[in-house]
Amino acid sequence: MSKRISRVVAYLLSIGLILAIWGSLFFNRPYNPNNIGLYQTGKYGELLLIVFGFMLLGAVDLPINFRQGAKVWLTGYIGLFIVQVIICAINYDQFKMWQLFGMFLPIISGVSPIFTGLVIFFFLKKYFATFLDHFTYQQSGIILTFISFLIWAISGTGIGLASNVFGPLLIIAGVWGMWLKRQEYSLRRAIICFICFIGLSGFIIWSNQTLLLQFPDVQKSMPAGMTFLDYPVSAVMLLSSGLLFYSLKIFVPFIKQFLFNNIFLALIITGSPIFITYFNYLPSGKKVRSIVIFICLLLVVFYSVVIEYGLNKLKLGRKIIQVFDQDNLGKLMVNIWKNVKSYLGRHKLFFWTFLYFIILAWLSIFIVSKQGRIDGLNSQNIFWYILAQRMFVPVLTALFLLALFAIILFITTRYWVSLSLVTVIILGLAIADQIKISLRGEPIYPTELKEALNANTLLGMIDPSIIIATVIGLVIIIGVTIFLEIKFPHRVGSIKSRLIGFILGILLWCTPSQFNNPNTPIYYLSRAFDNNPIYSAPTVDAEINGPLLMLFDYSNVATMDKPAGYSQTAIRKIEQKYQKQAKIINQNRSNKLGNQTMIFNLSESFTDPLNFPTAKLASGVSDPMKYIRTLSETTTSGKMLSGGYGGGTAKMEYESLTGFNIGTLKGQIMPYQQIVPSYPFYPSLGMNYAYSSAIHPFFGTYYSRQSVYKTFGFDKFVFIGSKYKIHHQKKLGKSWYLSDETLYRNAEDQLAEHKGSQFINLISMQNHLPYNNWYSHNEYLNKIKLGLPQTSGIDPQSFATYTKGIQYTDQAVENFIKRIDKINRPIIFVFYGDHYPAIIDQNELNNYPIQLHATNYFIYANKYAREHGAKNKVSNSKYVSTADFIPMALEQGNIKVSPFQALLTQVQKELPAITINYKAGSGIEFVDQNGKEVSEKSLTKKQKQLLHDYELIQYDMSQGNGYTLKANKSFYKSAN
Q1: CA 192, CA 243: separation in Å to the nearest integer?
Q2: DSSP secondary structure string, 686-716?
Q3: Strands across the sheet with 913-916, in order?
Q4: What is the enclosing helix (H) or strand (E) of 916?
Q5: b/e per residue, 337-373, with b = 16+ CB within 10 A?
Q6: pLDDT confidence tier of residue 219, bands split at 50, 70 and 90
Q7: Coil/strand/helix, residue 784
Q8: Percent of the chain at pLDDT above 70?
Q9: Which residues 6+ apart lie within 8 Å of 972 measured at CB?
Q10: What is residue 441's predicted lDDT score, i.e. its pLDDT?
Q11: H or E segment at 214?
Q12: Which has more confidence, 575 or 26?
């Protein structure tokens, strides 16, 4: 065969390989146990292309030196960098700082495992060549065979393409390619090898499609069975790839740099997790995926031309490569170190300052934590947790400290003074956070910084020894600063350089205003630095993100879109309007709220297990909520529309206590942390009582409840670790949590302790996840089933445990109601489940949006209340929002209303139930009494006006000026 024909065939085969590697993305299928044969065949084909590609790249006739390894590294690094930039420009949320870090040092990161293997292989290729030269053909073949089987035997099973171990394992394939290249070529052998390859591949495909289906035990042995066929160094994979390679190796010498680059880039880009993740987000339609693959091919071809020209023709490219033109790795590292050392020497003051701020950032995080451990995350070691999962949090904090330093330096022109001021600010903030956490179980919020003006009041709350230590520390810092400024003064640069630093510092300190705006790149950039706020646990958030980022994350939160026409005048008109409406409603009501006792009970994760889609209970097994189901027939009851699935407790509690609906708020808003602290007082149902309390048989640090309840005007909060002891403590079986019976017994103690009317807020924990096998005598094991896929880590036993817990709650509720029926005081008891437990896979939520958010509730008036005017039932109760409980409870108790409660009454009576848009995750949605979604456009003019009135009042107490609080709170205060 002529060289020209061979060259053309080599080009065609290379292009075919490139197209096959890219095309494998098109057929990439998720694991499906119902079609395991097709899945296995696809995995075999995908890995065959990768292993064959490594053999080919090992055999390509390119220089064997560090310089070529450097070209491979630079080509791959820049290629992956461009891919990440493009993907992150399309999807901001894909960007993570560790990916840049990992691409620069691929060996320590799984950014692209295939790239890791290729880089190592090409830097060591000269040593592999020396090995092959040292032994004979047979000797090197035997050694390679032994090494291949040894790696296969000891490297374990289940290593997938995303594992960073995967890349280095492929090095053996590259060495096999070098070995096969050196073997004498025979057309007869090539034909035999190709026939054997076809036969072996046919057998593998046949076994995948036939044997795996005929022998179920083979499927059960997965992933061991999968490992045999698709493991990179398995005998089957190396043999099939080697057969194919030898049959085509005559064309290898004609593969030049351009084709090499494209094969190389096809392997690393299609195997990089960020690209695969993005590709899997695309619609599954053939057209979209084909277009994306075609565009990527064009971009890679263009890039290959540019990179080849740049590294070989341009002066800068040649200069970069020459850095790697060394005889051995030792000289290379010495050369790199000399260049790095020289650069650091010229800019040592900047780097030492930045390193100091990183240490300072770490120290601030350590101070906030509890003796170096994260109290809210099973007391994990703070150092290792940050290093392993949030390593860029201290870097981001240090960048802000450096920016602050530049601002102060521009003003003072003194290096040590500026450094000391930044130190005092960040350490002072960290110490203040730690003190507040120790005193009140929560960190400092941005809205509380103004409290620094009340220094005299704050100092009275702090241990005098801490104040003395602080003063001594400040004196020492001032003394050291003066000494350093006199003895070791530093030039701080020209006015121009300081001005540039000042401007850049101001710009950086403006960015936190967008930390909570998902419509901006700044939002995703802060998340890329591992700054992921945990709004449900602000104390944990402060411990792992540090005091500075915690303040940024809780500041400038846009809680709600401003309704049209919001003004003090508009609010006054609404107040007057509903004062009149309250008088109309109160004409037909005889009881006053201040004379009643109201109990709200948030029952953790409570819902009817039989309401789960596809749930079935075996015949003859007792109903897990027999009592509540019977009670619901004679009292107000129905479905409550929860704003969350598997979470969102505090949001539902906020709705029930205030009457405000989270559906009108922006997504991801945590009202307890981001709304309530913005106001000195926040209206709630409890404000209408001379005495209000809350009982929670768990830790009280979550959701900032301690400070929120004070803002609500509560007199008492009982929780584990509070000054009020939890009595009658009892756990069920092996459960971690105190039981509902414990909660109700403590509620009874509170009723007995305070003889007058009162408001009690109960929050249970008994049915909180996890749902391990807590209960030894559980009749629901293997007796209740779900047909839908369940959440990872949840199994039928978990569902049985949850069901048994519901039965225990049902029994505890029955006993509690029997006891409050014996009390000669009017009591209204509101019971509701805050959300479904995360038992069904969340991918199913869009198929059952209403059903999987509709928990059970009931409102019960005790015997004494019914004898004194309370009702058994109220209307419009089949589907309600949590915010409807206040007006419904007042109606059931025949209780007079305030102007605000009159507004809530109109909303509950005349509007469909309000909740969040479940499919979008935020925004308002309406549900009618039949459980059907209702379009806002279908509302009447009167309903739209009512909704607008409600939104204006909620905005006034979410992001507005609180005009409704300025008239002695009379708008919210019930008529007594």
Answers
A1: 9
A2: GGGSS-EEEEEEEES-GGGHHHHHHHHT-SE
A3: 913-916, 924-927, 933-934
A4: strand 913-916
A5: eeeeeeeeeeeeeeeebbebbbebbbbbbbbbbeeeb
A6: very low
A7: strand
A8: 83
A9: 683, 687, 898, 899, 900, 901, 964
A10: 61
A11: helix 212-214
A12: 575
CB 122 within 8 A of CB 171: no
Cβ(33)–Cβ(219) below 8 Å: yes
Confidence category of residue 116, pLDDT binned at 50, 70, 90? confident
Conformation bin of residue 198: beta by default, left when phi > 0, alpha when psi is -120 to 50: alpha
pLDDT for 792 equals 65
Contact call for residues 860 and 817 (beta carbons, < 8 A): yes
Supply the pLDDT for residue 457. 47
Nearest to 253 by CA among 74, 586, 9: 9
Parallel/antiparallel/unpaired status of strands 597-603 and 759-763: parallel
User: 479-491: buried (b, 16+ CB within 10 Å) or exposed (e) per residue?
Assistant: eebeebeeeeeee
How far is Cα 168 from Cα 118, in angstroms, rounded to an integer?
8
Dihedral angle sign, alpha carbons of residues 19, 21, 25, 28 = positive
Answer with the residue of higher pLDDT: 197 or 953.
953
Instruction: Collect contacts of 781-785 with beta carbons under 8 A, ≥24 apart.
Output: 783/617, 783/618, 783/621, 784/609, 784/615, 784/616, 784/617, 784/618, 784/621, 785/615, 785/616
Domain ranges of the chain: 3-313, 349-553, 607-943
Contact 707, 681 (CB under 8 A): no
Specify whether the CB–CB gap between 717 and 759 falls below 8 A: no
Fill in the amino acid letter for 477: I
> Would the pLDDT of 106 be above 70?
no
3-class DSSP state for residue 223?
A: coil
For 51-76, write each residue's pLDDT tens digit.
Answer: 888 888 888 887 777 777 777 777 77
Residues 680-722 pLDDT 10s: 889 999 988 989 999 999 988 778 888 899 999 999 999 998 8
Q: Residue 168, preceding bond cis, omega within 30 degrees?
A: no
Report the 10 Å Cβ neighbour count for 202. 10
Kindly report the number of other CB atoms within 10 A of residue 258's CB atom.
15
Please give the single-letter amino acid code of residue 77.
Answer: Y
**Contact (Cβ atoms closer than 8 angstroms) between residue 609 and residue 624:** yes
User: How many residues are present in the chain?
Assistant: 976
Pairing of strands 716-720, 692-699: parallel
Summarize pLDDT for 357-404 with one digit per residue, the tens: 999 988 888 888 876 776 655 567 777 777 767 788 888 999 999 999
Q: What tokens appear for 163 in the block? A: 């594992």
The beta-carbon contacts of 921-930 under 8 Å, at least 24 apart in sequence, are 921/667, 922/665, 922/666, 922/667, 922/668, 923/663, 923/667, 924/663, 924/664, 925/663, 927/641, 927/850, 927/879, 928/879, 929/876, 929/878, 929/879, 930/878, 930/879
Predicted confidence (pLDDT) per residue in 588-616, tens digit: 999 998 889 999 999 999 999 999 998 99
**CATH superfamily placement of domain 607-943:** Alkaline Phosphatase, subunit A (3.40.720.10)
- Please give the pLDDT value at position 222: 46
* Cβ within 8 Å of residue 215, ≥6 positions away: none
SS3 914: strand
Q: Coil, strand, or helix at residue 824? A: coil
**pLDDT given at position 257:** 74
Which pLDDT score is estimated for 38? 59
- Residue 777 has, within 13 A of its CA and on its CB side, a CA count of 2
Alpha-carbon distance of 575 to 970, in angstroms, equals 9
Smallest CA-to-CA distance from 708 within 653, 644, 766, 649 is with 653
Can you tell me whether residue 602 is helix, strand or coil? strand
> Is the Cβ–Cβ distance between 640 and 646 less than 8 Å?
no
pLDDT at 104 over 70: no
Cα distance between residue 9 and residue 26, in whole Å: 25
Burial class (CB in 10 A: 0-12, 13-18, 19+), 165: middle
**Bridging pattern class, strands 933-934 and 924-927:** antiparallel
